[in-house]
């Protein structure tokens, strides 16, 4: 089922509740850079996030190098941001919480 694209106000409201997520200039996606203690922690984050993505049937665009994972979320079918993007972002934040060094939280 196609998700309804969020308006600018709804995007701003959702984004205000999210720490570290940045709205792309075109307003069609959100982005966050996660940094972890090690590759193992980064991979654990990706594994947990992949399970959440499967449950939501909503998959991130991400890039991993050693302890770094850069994530972009958008809903391609809706050509912008939907509730699914913010649900997955919140789940990814929870997955990262115990894995990130204190100075990066």
Can you tag this structure with a few keywords?
105 residues; 3 helices; 4 strands; 18% strand; alpha+beta; single chain; Gyrase A, domain 2; 4-stranded antiparallel β-sheet
Could you write a compact summary of the structure shown?
With about 100 residues, the protein is α+β, with helices and mostly antiparallel strands. The chain has a single domain (about 25-105), classed as Gyrase A, domain 2, CATH 3.30.1360.20.
Can you walk me through this structure?
- There is one protein chain.
- The chain is of the alpha+beta class and 105 residues long.
- The chain has one domain: Transcriptional coactivator/pterin dehydratase (Gyrase A, domain 2).
- It is built from three helices and four strands; from the N terminus they run αββαββα.
- The chain has a four-stranded antiparallel sheet, covered by helices on one side.
- Helix 2 (39-56) packs antiparallel against helix 3.
Question: What letter string, H or E per element, gives the SSE order?
Answer: HEEHEEH
Given helix and strand content, the structural type is alpha+beta
- Number of DSSP E strands: 4
Q: Residue ranges: pLDDT <50 for 5 or more in a row?
A: none
Summarize the helices and strands and which ones pair or pack.
Elements: H1 8-16, E1 22-23, E2 30-35, H2 39-56, E3 61-65, E4 68-73, H3 83-97
Antiparallel strand pairs: 1-2, 2-4, 3-4
């Amino acid at each position: 089922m196609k998700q309804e694209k969020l308006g600018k106000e709804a995007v701003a409201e959702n984004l205000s509740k999210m720490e570290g997520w940045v709205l792309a200039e075109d307003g069609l996606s959100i982005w966050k850079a996660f940094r972890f203690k090690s590759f193992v922690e980064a991979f654990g984050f990706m594994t947990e996030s992949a399970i959440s993505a499967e449950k939501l049937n909503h998959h991130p665009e991400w890039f991993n190098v050693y302890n770094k994972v850069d994530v972009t979320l958008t809903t391609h079918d809706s050509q912008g941001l939907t509730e699914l993007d913010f649900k997955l972002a919140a789940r990814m934040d929870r997955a990262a919480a115990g894995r990130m060094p204190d100075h990066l939280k």
